[in-house]
Each structure stands twice: as C-alpha cells, then as structure tokens.
Amino acid sequence: MPIDFTLSDPQRRLRDSARCFANDVLSGVRDASRNLPTATERFAATRPFYEQAIGAGFLRRLIPQPFGGEGAGYIDMAIVAEEFYAVDVNVSLTLFANLLGLMPLFLAGSADQHARFVAPFLAGVGAPLAAFASSEPGGSANYAAPAPAEGVRTTARRDGNTWVLDGTKQWISSATGWDAGGADLLCVVCRTDSDAPPERGISVIAVPRPERGLTLIRAPETLGHRAHLVPRFRLAQVRVPLDHLIGAPGQGKAIVDASFGATAALVGLMGVGLMRAAFGFALEFARTQRRGGARPIIEHQAVGYAMADAKTAIEAARYLGWKACHAMDAQAPGAPEMAVHSKILGSESAVRVITALMSVVGIDSYDHELPLAGLLQDALVLPLFDGGNMGVRRRQLHELLAGPDYDPMAAADA
Ligand SMILES: Cc1cc2nc3c(=O)[nH]c(=O)nc-3n(C[C@H](O)[C@H](O)[C@H](O)COP(=O)(O)OP(=O)(O)OC[C@H]3O[C@@H](n4cnc5c(N)ncnc54)[C@H](O)[C@@H]3O)c2cc1C
C-alpha cells in the first residue's frame, strides 16, 4: 500500500466525536477545578467529567478489540489523545492512565485475568480507575540496575497461597482512587526474588482495590496537570492470591519496558494537542491585536516567521507520532524506536513551541487569564514523565544504537 496519511471513515468519526466531546464537556474541567486548594479536591472535581467520558464510551473505544474493547489500535488512541489534550489535560491523562494501568494485562495477562480485571473498564458506567505502579520515592530511573543498586524496593513475598506486598510508590496516576482507598486496579511493579538479577527478580502483580493496607501519604502540588492525581502511597502487608501475578515470575522488567514503550508514541501526540491549542490562540491574537501599532502584529515579519516555525513543528510531530502508532499497530521491528522518537520530538517541541508562541503574544501571555502560561505548565511534564526523556534516550535509544544488530533503517522501514 502506498504511503497515505488519510484517516479512514471510522477514524474520522472518532476524531469528530472526540473533538465534540472535548469542546462540549472537557472544556468545563478548568473552571470546575482551578480554584480548589488541594490536588485531591481538584482531582475529585473532575469525576463528573470523567464519568461522562466513560459513559460516552471513550475508554471502551480505546481498549483493544482482543480484550473486549472496540479499539482498532494506536492510531485511534493518537486521535483521541490529540483532540482531548487540545482542550483539557487532566481528565485526559486520567483516561489514558487506564491504558497504561491495563497495559501489563494486555501484554502478558492470561485469558482468565483479562476476564476478571479488564471487564469493569469495558462496562461504560461509573468512574473506574486502573493504575500502573512503577515509580518509587528515591527514583526509578535505575529500577532494573543490578546489585549493589537498589532498583525496585517494593517487595512481594510468597506466603502460602498469597503474595504479600510491601513498599512505597509515588507519582502513580490515579493510584489512590477517588476516595484515597485505592484505584479499582493497581498493576504493581515489585521484587519477587531478592537474590535474582533484575531480568528475573522483578514481577508485576495485579492488585484490585485492597480492603486494607493501602495508605495515601501525600498528593503533590504539581506545576501542571493540576487536577490529575499522582499520589505517594504505602502498601503494607497487602495480600492477593498467587494467580494475580501477570506473566511469568520475573518477567517484570520486560513488562515495564514494553508498557512505557507502548505509551511513548502517545505522549508525542499529547504534545501536539497542547501545541495546537497554543497555536490557535496565538494566531487569533496575532491577527487581531495591533499592540498600539498601525497593523495587526501578524503582518510583522518576525511574528509571521515565528508562527510559521511553530506550525512546521506541530505538523512534523503529528505525523511522526502517527507513523510511530502505525508501526506499533503493525508490530514492525522499528516500532519501539519510532515510539521513542515520537515522544522526544512531540514533548520537547511542545515546550519549545509554546514558549516561542508566548514571545509572539508577549507579556500578556504571562497572565493566567490567557491560556498560554497554563499550556506551558502542562507541557513541561511531557519530557519528564513516562520514563523521562533523559531515561528513554539512555535506556531505549542509546541501548538500541549501541547494540551490534542495530539497523539504522529499521525505523524507516517500520
Ligand atoms: C503527571 C505524571 C504522571 C505519572 N504517571 C505515572 C504512572 O502512572 N506510573 C508510574 O510508575 N510513574 C508515573 N509517573 C512518573 C514518571 O513516569 C517518571 O518519568 C518516572 O518516575 C521516572 O522518573 P525519572 O526518569 O526522573 O527518574 P529518577 O530516578 O527520579 O531520575 C532523576 C534523574 O536522574 C538522572 N539519572 C538517574 N539515573 C541515571 C543514569 N543511570 N544515567 C544518567 N542519568 C541518570 C537523570 O537526569 C534523571 O532524569 C508520572 C509522573 C507524572 C508527573
């Protein structure tokens, strides 16, 4: 098939319905949450919006078909990520965090685990939350480093027919749920064999909302994504049956890498959504504002060139992201590399482009009455989360490039 970036009819319909939903519903999230004093209160205020997203079928629409959803793949996720992020990051990240939370099950879960754990997320009612609990206080960049490095500190010990989990996690999207009692499902990265090397000693265990043992320690006051919850919490003697282990014992490193790898391409599209919103505002401003001069500022060459550069970056990031998602859908050998390129380009362009657009608008962009300052605050996390760009460059790209079998054309052929 020739290269063709035309969306199919179902993809077009998905884009249109996501755009409508974002403009009609998600546009209200900011006013409903912005003046509340704590992260937990702001997160709670997003629940009615999140319930509408679930009720409108967006989560079911994105969960891949083999697991009972209607999702046709990563391109669908990319379309929704851009449309939602262009209007609101908070409910959007809560929604997408479910896909990261369920990813270990998609990648390595058994049919029985799919039936038990994925089903609540397909129902299209309520406000179900799934979380992927990898990051820990003290840092997780070296989570799979061999001894004497600490790596993953959360442990799961076998006791009869159960795993007993102990440890502290932080920065975990939605992990403590709407009421601090826990998300509906946590996929917890933990050490199941303290003597084995990381490739065999780390596992992922499914923990449905526990009756006891989960405690919220603190919900950080973040720079952006102010109404999204990324708590620090403790697991103390949390028990689950042995068959909650996802994949084989010790398969955790492979699952963690593949899970973050799968979402990397989408982070690039989140950046596109934010840039698109900033560009739309700056263009309107430049076309209508004279700033005391004789002509609208768009007619000044410096402004026109800055707008042109911004638009080039947005278009480039979108189509690199789509290419990466297409490669993921096709399970092409170059897909993991493409996903990282999408994340790096989309996230770092977002920070750079929104900053440049603030220069176009000038000093008024520094006022939160205008959207650009908030968009920059939201964009700043894109290079930091999902493994961090320092980390994905090092662990994924550098490792690939240094490998003896690396094929520089694999990404182009993906
Ligand atoms: C909004 C939001 C949502 C998030 N959601 C989740 C989630 O759902 N689940 C989850 O598990 N996490 C989540 N996180 C955490 C996020 O994924 C982080 O990217 C992750 O914790 C890794 O952070 P880090 O790379 O900065 O690691 P850290 O271990 O904190 O490392 C810090 C820095 O140390 C340096 N460094 C460390 N080791 C090396 C090395 N070997 N070589 C070179 N430099 C090194 C790098 O400069 C690195 O940036 C979220 C964070 C945010 C803000």
Please give a quick description of this structure:
The protein is of the alpha+beta class. It is 49% helix and 12% strand. It starts with 8 loop residues before the first helix and ends with a helix.
Question: Can you describe what's shown?
Answer:
- There is one protein chain.
- The protein is α+β, with helices and mostly antiparallel strands.
- It has 3 domains: 9-127, Orthogonal Bundle (Butyryl-Coa Dehydrogenase, subunit A, domain 1); 131-249, Beta Barrel (Butyryl-CoA Dehydrogenase, subunit A, domain 2); 254-413, Butyryl-CoA Dehydrogenase, subunit A, domain 3 (Up-down Bundle).
- Helices cover 49% and strands 12% of the residues.
- The strands form 2 sheets. The chain has a 4-stranded mixed beta sheet.
- A hairpin with a 2-residue loop joins strand 2 and strand 3 (162-169).
- Helix 1 packs parallel to helix 6, helix 10 (252-288) packs parallel to helix 12 (335-361) and helix 12 (335-361) runs antiparallel to helix 13 (372-379).
- The longest helix has 37 residues, at 252-288.
- The protein is globular and about 80 Å long.
- Bound molecules: flavin-adenine dinucleotide.
- Flavin-adenine dinucleotide (FAD) is lined by residues 97, 100, 131-135, 139-142, 171-173, 225, 228, 230, 381, 384-388, 390-391, 394.
